[in-house]
Every structure is written in structure tokens, then in C-alpha cells.
User: What shape does this take?
Amino acid sequence: MKKLIVLAILCFVLTLALGTAGAQDMIVGEAPMLAALVEAGELPPVEERLPADPLVITPYERIGDYGGEWRSAMVGGLDHIWMIRLMAYENLIRFTPDWSGLMPGVAKSFSGNSEATEFIFELREGLRWSDGAPFTADDITFWYDDVLTNEDLTPTIATWLISGGEPLNVEKVDDFTVKFTFSTPNGLFLQNLASILGCGPTSYPRHYLEPFHKDYAEDIDALVAEAGAGDWVELFQSKGGVEPCFWTNTSFWQTTEIPTMHAWRLTSTYGGGSGRVVAERNPYYYKTDPEGNQLPYIDRMIFDQLEDSETLLLQVLNGDIDMMARHFNSAANRPIVYDNREAGDYYAYGVVGEDANMTALAINLTHLDPVKREIFQNKDFRIGLSHAINRQEIVDIVYLGRGEPRQIAPQADSPFYDEEFAHQYTEYSVELANEHLDKAGYSERDAEGFRLGPDGERISIIVEAGDLFGRGWPDVLELIQGYWGAVGIHMEPRIIDRSLLVSRKVNSEHDATIWGASGGLDVYLTPIWYFPSDPVESAYAPLWTKWYFDPATGEEPPEAAQQQMALFDQIKATGDLERQAELMAELLAIAQEEFYVMGINSNPGGYGIARNYFRNVPATSTGSWKFPWPAPINTTLFFIEAGAQQ
Assistant: This one.
């Protein structure tokens, strides 16, 4: 199945309003827990809680049953990302569930000019935040005027919101219409807005946040002092004034007070010490099924906060997890998870990764130690390390024969697939490895056979990783330690918490890391493994990445990387699909030549489980961060069969 991520959505003369006509006349149902509140006079009738044109979405299997609790879990630090993936994808526009195009979200319709400089979004009349307050164009202009362009709250504006060196302009046309304008073409704007990055415009309720903003509060200093905050920015963020999809800042998930457009709202907080996070249905959620029943079907989400994936696996096997595909679902666990389906009363489904590689090994080319930097920037050194790795053995042992050896490159279903790029330097050969390591200038060895660097000291590499996502990285590192040792390179594996790993990568404090590489299909939105362009993920050159965003910081990259940066800027500056493809091909050719980072194996596709009573989950779907599975396949349509959950 080909998913050409060079989507036809870039035909910018576009207006979509899917399945909304006459929807108000169809309203027939609401959750019993909300109906009881209406009966008690604590909520308005459902007709008054929904917009005039609800977004109508179609279930995968059937119209669902109301009620029940969706039990899942989070493991380790920064795993609020799982909550983001389940319920924080409520942008103005969104990807279709099959990732083949764009569709309305909070916006009823959207359009753009052929130059990709002007985009108009029409909102649904009657939209409401979870506290019942109206959602209008004023909320979007608050995001723009008082958050995005406020230097205290947003010191650096995201590059996808900048063109021609200038940030976008947002203008209120009327209460239900906003216009986004760029000074020069922004050819990737709609895709980025539909991705997980695009949550900002729909995340800042003006009526709630204005009292905590220095430009509106009567006495901001008194409020800061009362809250015990360091300054007004800390106060504002502590009240939830942070994009919920901003995965390195958990502030949004640490308050229950902020109104939201999400289908569920927190009633207990992340990291609050209770060991459990609870979210309850939003009575003003703006979507219905085709029969007019207000979504979501499920009443509550329950997230246990766990310390390790082994505990999660036990919960899965015991039937304590209702639906999940995270942390426990390693290749090593596949046999026991599948064999236990009948006993655990659950079924399995597939999640197809859009990865460029399952296991990306990034050597830090901008290491703070000048000696290690010299070694790591030597391309022959990196080629030697790559040839030393027995990828097929890793696939056979760690991934039970699923997948194949490959480098970080576009997948075969991508229009940018290149066979040579995908498989260069993947041949396992101790002879070739030694040849390239010698050629790099490191033929001298110590008494134990380890190679010496230019300072006469043993070359030693610490490779850091998290035991995350069920990808078996600790086992991979153990094998690589032996492979590299066989060619004279001392390697020490180090498994650390995700939050610490992120901090070390951002500050260029690491020797090397292992992570998953996105960009196998989604090349335009996730090019970060092909040139230094993400301050967290581009772990092979974090200081070059910093320079790309701000030349006053970081470190000036070599000519090849700067050429790629210029090419990507040109891609963003045109709405011409053919020209974008030409420029991307040039960028990828440089990535192939430079060989910044090495891959180990392809992603053979993952799996998840759901209890047999948990329905409307597709048998197979595609997962990615920019396409934040499972949110785009409509978690609000998932349901628990009536009376089945005990």
C-alpha cells in the first residue's frame, strides 16, 4: 500500500467540509452519564452543547456502546506522550485515518491560495471548550498575539511557522473565520498544521488564561507570589498554558483546571503521586457518529504510572490493559503475548511503522570533547563501525527474524526509495571494518587490542539508550558491544531514563545514542535523520542543529550540511510539488554521501492488544509521531461492549 506523503493536499485551492451538512438535525444520543447530569439540571441538553455542524466520523466496525473505562499505562519519565497520542490531537485540521490526505478538525472548512501564502479557516459555530465557554476566533488570536509572538512565552518560534525569515500573521476575519498569512510561500504548512505539531491554535482558552497573563492581569506580581511561582511565565504555564503536544514540557498534564477541546479532560494529574491518571469525557466535545450520537463512547481513561515495562507486560497478560501498543510489545515478548490471547481475553492488531529504521545508532559528530569529535567526524571510522555490525544476527536474535538489515533511508513505498542508500555499508565484514578503521588512522592498539585515538588513549564509546517502546535496544547494544570489540573499539552500553537521555542529547553530552528513526514514508515532515534539523532527535549533530535554528548558537556545520539546510528552506518556500521533490532528492543524495548516522534494521511492523470487548480498532494501521497513532484513527470511536467490562 503506497502512501505518497507528497500529498495531493498541496493543491492549495482547497476547501473541505466532510460529512457535516444537516448534522444538527441528526442528534439522537449522548452518554448516559451526561444524560443524568442534564436531568439533574447540571448540564445543558446535548443539542445546546454541540456546534451547529458537528464533525461526523464513521466507525471502523459499528456504532458503539456508551460507557466503560479504558485502562492503559505509562512507563518511566516523559511518557505523558501516550496521553498525547490518545487524546491531544484536536487541531484545526487533521490527517485522514488512512494518512492519504487532510480533513477538517476543529475547523469546519479550510482553503488556501495557489501560492501557499494565505490560508483561511472557518470554525464551527457553537464550538465550546470543556467548561462550556464558546471557542471562537478570539481564542486563536490569543494564541497568536499573546503566546506565540510573546517572547517571554515563546523565545523561539517553530520553523514551520516561519517563511522568508518572518513568522506568519494571524488575522481574525470574523468570530468564526481566521486567516493565516505568510510573507513567502510555505509549502509544508498544511501538513505541519495537521500533524502533532499543529495543536497550538486550539490549545489556549482566552477566557481562562487571560487572568494569568501579564498583559491582562490586574496584579500579576500578587498572583505570582500567591502561587509561589518564580515569575509570570512559570505561573502561566503552571495553569496549563503550554501546548499539550509539547512533549518535553508536561505542564499541561499537571493541572485539571484548564479547559480543553479534547474528548477527555483530566480529573487527576500526571506525576501527581497518586500512581494513576484519570481523564473523563468532555461533555462539550464537538464530534458525533453518523447516527448523531455525541462522542466519545468511552466514559473514562485510566493510566497507571509504572516504573518498568515488565510490570506492564504482567498487566497485559492478566487482562488488566484494555488497549495498548507501547513498551510491552517487543519482538521478544511477541510469542508469550500471542500465546496468551485466549487466557487474557484479548486480541492482537498490527501497527505498521513509517520508520526509516527500527534502530538508529547516532554517533555524536559535535561532541564536546575535541578528541572524540575528531574521531567521530571521520567518515571512514563510521563506515568501519557499520561494517563491524552483524545486522542479520541482530534481526535473528533480537527481532526473531522479522525485518532486514538496512540503513536509515526512505522505505520502498516512498517515491524517494534508493536501493543503494538503503543498504550501503550494511555488509557484515570484519575485514572491511578493520580496513576502514585503519584507513581512518586508528591502526595502533593497546595491550588488550583496543584501538588508540589521536591522543594515544583507548577509543571508548558509551552508547546510551532507553529500554523503550518494546524495541529490544538493550539486547541490541549487548551484541554491538561484542561486534565492535572484535575490531578493537571499546563500547559500553548504558540504559538510562528517557528524560535524562533527552537532556544529554540536547546538550551534546553523549558519545552515541540509539533511537528509532522516523522518515521512512514521511520524508518531508520528518527529514531529521537526513540532515541536522531537530534539537532532540538529531542526536548525531545537536550543535549543528542549534546553529540551523539560530546561527548565534551551536556550531557552524560543514558545507554539506549547510547545503542541505538551504535545500530544505527552499522546499518550504514553494508550493510546487515537482520542485519540492527535486529539492528533496538533492537533500537525500547528500545524506547518502555524508553517512551521518547508521541504521541497523527495518521495522517489521509492530503489534498491540485490545480486550475482546474493546472494539472499533482497525486490524492494521500506520503509526508515526507526526501522524500520532492512534489518535488519527479516531480513539473517540473506540468502545467497550455494553456489560462486558467487569
About this structure: Residues 1-24 have pLDDT under 50 and may be disordered. The longest helix spans residues 577-594. The radius of gyration is 25 Å. The longest strand covers residues 346-353.
